[in-house]
Amino acid sequence: MSDGAKRAGFGSRASAITPSPPAPPLMKPPEADLDRIDLEVVLLQVNVLPSGHAGAISILADPGHGFGRAAVACAKRMIFSAARDRHGKYIQADAPPTSIRFTR
Fold first, then answer.
1. Domain residue spans of the chain
2. How confident is the model over 31-54, as a mean pLDDT?
3. SS (HEC) of the chain
4. Which CATH class is domain 26-103?
5. Is the pLDDT of residue 91 over 70?
6. Which of 9, 22, 48, 69 could form a Cys-Cys staple with 80, CB 3.0–4.6 A?
């Protein structure tokens, strides 16, 4: 091990940690740009799987102009905190309604 690694606080069992790539930016739907809409909110109901990924997604409030479709795509990329049963095991459950906000 090099002296630089020792000074940086790495022990003899140091391992490299690769950060995950950043999520792609949330993009407004093209229809919103054509209609010059700068701010909208979509309300979703997301069923969260034990893995924390989104299962079924329902749109509760959609302002139109493609925002509902874009919000569902956003929710599919998100990782949620999965619910646990009384024994601490992760379970599938509905999350509280989730707002996805779009701004320019």
1. 26-103
2. 90
3. CCHHHHHCCCCCCCCCCCCCCCCCCCCCCHHHHHCCCCEEEEEEEEEECCCCEEEEEEEEECCCCCHHHHHHHHHHHCECCCEECCCCCEECEECCCEEEEEEC
4. alpha beta
5. yes
6. 48
